[in-house]
Design brief:
This protein is an alpha+beta fold. It folds into 2 domains: 25-168, 2,3-Dihydroxybiphenyl 1,2-Dioxygenase, domain 1; 183-379, 2,3-Dihydroxybiphenyl 1,2-Dioxygenase, domain 1 (Roll). 24% of the residues lie in helices and 33% in strands. The chain is built from 10 helices and 17 strands. A hairpin with a 2-residue loop joins β15 and β16 (331-337). The two termini are 25 Å apart. The structure holds fe (ii) ion. Fe (ii) ion (FE2) binds at residues 188, 190, 271, 273, 350.
Length: 382
């Protein structure tokens, strides 16, 4: 049986400490990709996102093209370089397609930046007002693990589409009222860091952004015969933003985290978890649209009724679709993991449906890990 995660005590409910850097949520995730036009088509057709804005030569931006996609409260920005000499081109050369920016919405980007830098964050872009025809947008950027950054965004004085330099687009493929595949919001964004670096980044999120530790999974909890990883889950003061940090642990063979680090060229975002209120319908739709998911061995479902008890979803549908289920004292959750969404074995997605559980699917880690390793072995990297 797997250990349940240890939880930090957290602040007393009567006197919460002042949050030195209050965050409203994730504003957008920006990916640097080799071909943003094609990536946008993939996310629209396979994931059900809708194109809402574009920036590029047609909007007088010469060096890059960006597509803004939305579904529920999730906003993705896909950006490509238009020439070889830029940070975007360099990023894609080293990392392949990946998450560059986990942008955080704030009331005051200058105040957030100054508070973060005063607590040790490395500055990337000083607070800047970007003027547009429909108001102005305030941005400032700090560095996180690897080449990943956090941009603080204050859009309270901007009424235009996404940001100055972007033009509104009406998606010819996905209608405005199209619910997509039922994805609602970002649940968590997981970072992979080098062996021995997890606690440094846990400390970074605690010290710089005022996050606290929600859960800790050690290598005993997340291991197979061959390899292991360790993970700590950090969350912001409001509980809306969760950033787990993984590092590889010693095993007989190469950890899946090491494989990621090798192919990504260093630390970066491993997976993005997206919430669905109807995971069975969402996964059914995504499978029909061509998304591949990790294969879960049939044995996983044999004792599932004993482990999970009464749930609202039919177990045969979960098994048919490869959806995992886990229960703790507070409730249950359903989750599934896609295969990688680019040729390098790096970024993938999780779809998750919550029914009150707090435990982050600890009971599924073993099944997930075995499934990931089977994929890793097929690539000849285990
Ligand atoms: Fe996850």
């Amino acid at each position: 049986m797997l250990e349940s995660p240890t939880r930090s005590p957290g602040p007393a409910p009567t006197a919460p400490p002042a949050d030195h850097l209050p965050l409203q949520g994730i504003d957008y995730l920006e990916f640097y990709v080799g071909n943003a036009k094609q990536a946008a088509h993939f996310y629209r057709t396979a994931f059900g996102f809708r194109l809402v804005a574009y920036s590029g030569p047609e909007t007088k931006v010469r060096e890059r093209a960006s597509y803004v996609l939305e579904q529920g409260d999730i906003r993705l920005v896909l950006t490509s370089a238009l020439g070889p000499d830029s940070d975007i081109a360099r990023h894609v050369l080293i990392h392949g397609d990946g998450v560059k920016d986990i942008a955080l919405r704030v009331d005051d980007a200058a105040a957030a930046f100054e508070a973060a830098v005063a607590r040790g964050a490395e500055p990337v872009m000083e607070p800047t007002w970007i003027e547009g025809q429909k108001g102005r947008l305030q941005k400032a950027t700090i560095r996180s693990y690897g080449d990943t950054v956090h941009t603080f965004v204050n859009r309270s004085q901007y009424q235009g589409t996404f940001a100055p330099g972007f033009g509104r687009r009406d998606d010819p493929l996905v209608a405005k009222d199209d619910p997509g595949v039922g994805l609602r919001r970002v649940d968590h964004v997981v970072g992979n860091v080098e062996l021995g670096a997890m606690d440094r980044w846990v400390d970074f999120y605690a010290r710089v952004l005022g996050f606290s530790q929600l859960a800790h999974f050690d290598d005993e909890a997340i291991s197979t015969e061959y390899s292991a990883l360790m993970s700590k889950v950090m969350q912001d003061g409001s509980g809306k933003i969760k950033f787990p940090i993984n590092e590889p642990a010693e095993g007989k063979r190469k950890s899946q985290i090491e494989e990621y680090l090798e192919f990504y060229g260093g630390p970066g975002v491993q997976h993005v978890a997206l919430v669905s209120d109807d995971i069975v319908a969402t996964v059914e739709a995504m499978r029909q649209r061509g998304i591949g998911f990790l294969t879960i061995p049939g044995t996983y479902y044999e004792d599932l009724p004993q482990r999970i008890g009464e749930i609202d979803q039919p177990l045969d549908a979960l098994q048919r679709l490869g959806i995992l289920a886990d229960r703790d004292e507070d409730g249950y959750l359903l989750q599934i993991f896609t295969k990688g969404v680019q040729d390098r074995p790096t970024v993938f997605y999780e779809i998750i449906e919550w029914h009150g559980a707090q435990g982050f699917g600890a009971g599924n880690f073993k099944a997930l890990f075995v499934a990931l390793e089977a994929e890793q072995a097929r690539r000849g990297n285990l």
